[in-house]
């Protein structure tokens, strides 16, 4: 996927792609979770590193972002993320470290927010102490657009380029050099890094871009990658794939007809088209109920007119548009639809994006959505016919209260321009679902440990064009205390034995897999995990194998119940087929950060290695002996505020 994206960057005449974004899913309501990867830093770092390598293989650059702790949109220009050095090191910086060391991105983008009292773009501990001194990064650092406040402080911190740049910033740098408060050596250092980046660019090398990449080939890439990432959440009694004799489908839900390809804001993607679920089903040879389609199209048109934004609202073009209220068929109409169709499809959609965090009301199922699922399932089940729900979403929604109703639930995410075709490929069995959840689906929003310290008002963040006035303005979210500390996502739910709707790493398949013969070795401080995976079902399929490790001193030293340390996906296994999956990681990857000792420390002892299909579906275990290790660090990024840290 990265190669295809990088080729488009190259052939459209750009030099650097401002992506990928890899901040953690600290909370389900963050508006930009759709473009972030996971609640786990290993998943985020590995995915981002692969993306970076793919894009940069085409001779163009990337900019990993937003460095660091950009976990909310509410008051993003003025919010101070207050958190412990341990949470910073183990979670919020870890993914960036992996992406830097394994991807070597051309540029890094500093985030809008403060980190423990200092703007990220003015934070020398972050941009020089961690990024350059600890991780040996040699590329260029840029601000997010209009980020920070003090241009001279940004230069001193190691933020090389100020984007998009203002006359006031220019003058502040010149004045700082002239009055001696800013050393010209630092300015020259930053300029040198910018020039080194420019020397690598296609523009500097005189590349004649075509303005015509192979979009048809790239559409096939996105169609396939979307199916790989879809997660089958439920599949009772073999509801999916659809039976061969399924011909007629009643399609419910407004987003079935107006499929959501992706999120909004700067993560939005310009695309030639979006294949709706309706079109995908038709392309797969299924017949969609015409009368129901006509009703929905009329309803959606009327709702879009009613919800049209004010043309004078300059922010509207960047905001998620308001989705239509759901259409609920009458009992008489439902009876006709049941008689005329073989199966029902219901799509639940959610938009999200930059500038705006989601609300609890957006997390929960809306009353009309619940009523739609209830009435459709009751009517079709009464006739012995099945109901499938597709989730066309960019972030977690509540599922626990209604997942017992339909026969199958497919989390399709926001699947890009070929989304409808990708969903149809899975529904019909052309593709076997193999995606796993990169985040936990809680029973309720309040179950998240961060819910007490996360904005739920859905307030629009400042745009940034009057940043000084905004920075001085008192805001409900002037600071956010990360008091859940290291207990983010499954680290919290699994450590505190909290019930969840779907655990981290969860995902069903049309086939089944057995794990056998686990072997774990520690050689030269590299831990190798091998396990044999066998397809024990009736369909060709792939399995994502996950390795979690539990430290011997987990309870005593306030460590998570277990942590993901490796994962890998098998090739396509035919029924009865086997593959030995091999994964490796370093003993140093088992370290926890000790604030008092200012060091990464690995405790000596027997570590439990858990090999499974999710964080709560462990299929094989083994132990491995590890010697104590310690690596000292610079004492950086200490919080200035007192935090009431959650402990086990």
Describe the structure.
The protein is of the alpha/beta class and 648 residues long. It is built from 18 helices and 26 strands. Strand 17 (513-523) and strand 18 form a beta hairpin. The protein starts with a helix and ends in a 16-residue tail after the last strand. The radius of gyration is 25 Å and the shape is globular. The strands form seven sheets. Strands 8-13-12-11-9-10 form a six-stranded mixed beta sheet, with helices on both faces. Strands 1-2-4-7 form a four-stranded parallel beta sheet.
Helix and strand topology:
Layout: H1 2-11, E1 16-17, H2 41-56, E2 61-67, E3 80-82, H3 85-92, H4 94-103, E4 107-110, E5 114-115, E6 118-119, H5 124-134, E7 140-143, H6 151-157, H7 167-179, H8 184-199, H9 215-229, E8 231-235, E9 248-252, H10 254-257, H11 277-283, E10 287-288, H12 290-306, H13 331-340, E11 343-349, H14 360-363, H15 367-382, E12 386-392, E13 408-411, H16 419-427, E14 441-442, H17 467-472, E15 479-481, H18 490-495, E16 500-502, E17 513-523, E18 526-535, E19 544-550, E20 563-569, E21 578-586, E22 592-594, E23 599-602, E24 605-614, E25 617-626, E26 629-632
Parallel strand pairs: 1-2, 2-4, 3-5, 3-15, 4-7, 9-10, 9-11, 11-12, 12-13
Antiparallel strand pairs: 5-6, 8-13, 14-16, 17-18, 18-21, 19-20, 19-24, 22-23, 23-26, 24-25
Helix pairs in contact: 1-2, 2-4, 9-16, 11-16, 13-15
């Amino acid at each position: 996927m990265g190669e295809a994206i990088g080729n488009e960057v190259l052939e459209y005449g750009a030099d650097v792609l401002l992506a990928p974004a890899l901040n953690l899913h600290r909370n389900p309501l963050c508006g930009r979770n759709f473009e972030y990867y996971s609640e786990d830093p290993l998943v985020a770092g590995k995915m981002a590193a692969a993306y970076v390598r793919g894009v940069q293989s085409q001779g163009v650059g990337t900019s990993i972002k937003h460095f660091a702790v950009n976990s909310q949109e509410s008051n993003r220009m003025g919010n101070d993320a207050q958190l412990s050095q341990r949470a910073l090191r183990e979670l919020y910086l870890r993914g960036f470290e992996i992406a830097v060391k394994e991807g070597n991105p051309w540029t890094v983008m500093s985030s809008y927010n403060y980190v423990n009292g200092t703007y990220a773009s003015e934070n020398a501990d972050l941009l020089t102490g961690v990024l350059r001194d600890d991780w040996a990064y040699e590329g260029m650092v840029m601000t997010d657009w209009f980020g920070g406040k003090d241009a001279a402080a940004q230069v001193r911190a190691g933020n090389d380029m100020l984007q998009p740049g203002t006359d006031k910033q220019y003058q502040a740098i010149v004045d700082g050099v002239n009055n001696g408060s800013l050393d010209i050596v630092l300015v020259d250092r930053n300029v040198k890094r910018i020039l080194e980046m420019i020397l690598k660019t296609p523009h500097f090398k005189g590349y004649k871009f075509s303005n015509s990449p192979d979009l048809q080939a790239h559409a096939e890439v996105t169609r396939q990658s979307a199916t790989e990432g879809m997660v089958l959440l439920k599949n009772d009694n073999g509801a999916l794939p659809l039976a061969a004799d399924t011909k007629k489908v009643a399609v419910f839900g407004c987003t079935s007809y107006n499929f959501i390809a992706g999120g909004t804001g700067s993560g939005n993607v310009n695309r030639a088209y979006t294949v709706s679920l309706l079109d995908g089903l038709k392309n797969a040879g299924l017949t969609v109920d015409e009368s129901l389609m006509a009703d929905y199209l009329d309803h959606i048109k009327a709702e879009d007119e009613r919800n049209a934004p004010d043309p004078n609202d300059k922010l509207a073009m960047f905001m998620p548009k308001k989705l239509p209220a759901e259409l609920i068929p009458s009992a008489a109409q439902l009876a006709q639809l049941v008689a005329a169709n073989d199966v029902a499809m219901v799509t639940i959609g959610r938009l999200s994006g930059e500038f705006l965090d989601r609300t609890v009301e957006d997390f929960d199922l809306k009353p009309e959505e619940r009523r739609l699922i209830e009435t459709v399932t009751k009517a079709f089940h009464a006739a012995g016919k099945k109901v499938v729900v597709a989730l066309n979403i960019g972030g977690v929604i509540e599922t626990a209260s209604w997942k017992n109703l339909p026969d199958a639930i497919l989390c399709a995410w926001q699947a890009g321009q070929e989304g409808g075709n990708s969903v149809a490929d899975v529904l019909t069995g052309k593709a076997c679902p193999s995606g796993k959840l990169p985040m936990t689906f809680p029973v309720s929003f309040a179950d998240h440990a961060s819910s007490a310290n996360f904005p739920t008002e859905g307030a629009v963040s400042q745009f940034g064009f009057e940043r000084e006035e905004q920075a001085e303005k008192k805001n409900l979210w002037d600071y956010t205390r990360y008091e859940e500390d290291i207990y983010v996502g499954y680290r919290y739910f699994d450590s505190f034995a909290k019930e969840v709707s779907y655990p981290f790493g969860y995902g069903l398949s049309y086939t089944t897999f057995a794990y056998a013969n686990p072997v774990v070795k520690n050689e030269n401080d590299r831990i190798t995990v091998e396990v044999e995976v066998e397809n024990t079902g009736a369909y060709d399929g792939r399995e994502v194998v996950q390795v979690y490790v539990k430290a011997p001193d987990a309870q005593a030293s306030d460590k998570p119940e277990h942590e993901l340390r490796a994962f890998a996906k098998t090739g396509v296994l035919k029924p009865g087929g086997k593959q030995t999956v091999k994964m490796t990681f370093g003993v140093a990857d088992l370290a926890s950060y000790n604030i008092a000792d200012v060091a990464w420390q690995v405790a000596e002892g027997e570590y439990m290695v858990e090999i499974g299909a999710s964080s709560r579906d462990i299929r094989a275990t083994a132990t491995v002996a590890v010697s104590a290790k310690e690596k000292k660090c610079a004492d950086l990024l200490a919080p200035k505020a007192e935090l009431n840290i959650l402990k086990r």
